[in-house]
């Protein structure tokens, strides 16, 4: 029974640790999105003003480097403390369930009460982590919506400018659109 409980605790802890990693990945992704949005805005300005072809190429290269750096930073940062807290909470939950089934009140009068208090504390950490994940999901969605809106505005403005005899060519518009 103890071996089975330990195995179940390990599996549950691994699942909860992955959930904590998702929270961390969302945070790293949000920072990356923010950086990319700033670089993209500079690139849009460059393409609209048609400063020079090398600057446009530099913009595309900078965004590519930014994406690589964002992924690298996400892997280099230490694991999130939320994952450790959640994994520990999963083990506490399983031990508490076993304690309530196996321990007698006469032998351990306060064991179920103490473990139940620990369970409530871990559940609060779990709830905080879930709220953080939901907030980060909304943040990333909002940032992506802003970038998409900016892209459409610039695309329409660039098209109108090109039709009016501006400096942008049809090739620029096609590359910009697919990028």
Automatic annotation (TrEMBL):
Alphabetical list of Gene3D superfamilies matching this protein: ABC transporter type 1, transmembrane domain
UniProt keywords, alphabetically: Membrane, Transmembrane, Transmembrane helix
Domain of life: Eukaryota
Keyword Cytoplasm: no
GO CC annotation, single: membrane
SUPFAM superfamilies: ABC transporter transmembrane region
Cross-referenced InterPro entries: ABC1_TM_sf
GO molecular function, a single term: ATP binding
TM region(s), chain numbering: 145-164
Keyword hit for Transmembrane: yes
Protein's UniProt name: Uncharacterized protein
């Amino acid at each position: 029974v103890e071996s089975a409980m330990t195995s179940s605790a390990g599996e549950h802890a691994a699942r909860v640790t992955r959930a904590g990693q998702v929270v961390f990945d969302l945070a790293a992704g949000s920072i990356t999105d923010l950086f990319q949005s700033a670089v993209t805005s500079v690139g849009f300005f460059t393409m609209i003003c048609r400063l020079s072809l090398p600057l446009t190429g530099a913009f595309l290269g900078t965004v590519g480097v930014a994406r690589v750096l964002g992924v690298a930073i996400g892997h280099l940062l230490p694991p999130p403390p939320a994952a450790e807290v959640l994994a520990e909470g999963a083990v506490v939950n399983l031990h508490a369930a076993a304690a309530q089934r196996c321990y007698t009140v006469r032998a351990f009068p306060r064991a179920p009460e103490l473990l139940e208090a620990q369970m409530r504390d871990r559940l609060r950490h779990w709830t905080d982590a879930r709220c953080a994940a939901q907030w980060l999901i909304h943040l990333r969605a909002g940032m992506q919506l802003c970038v998409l809106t900016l892209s459409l505005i610039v695309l329409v403005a660039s098209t109108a400018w090109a039709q009016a005899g501006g400096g942008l060519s049809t090739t620029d518009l096609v590359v910009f659109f697919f990028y």
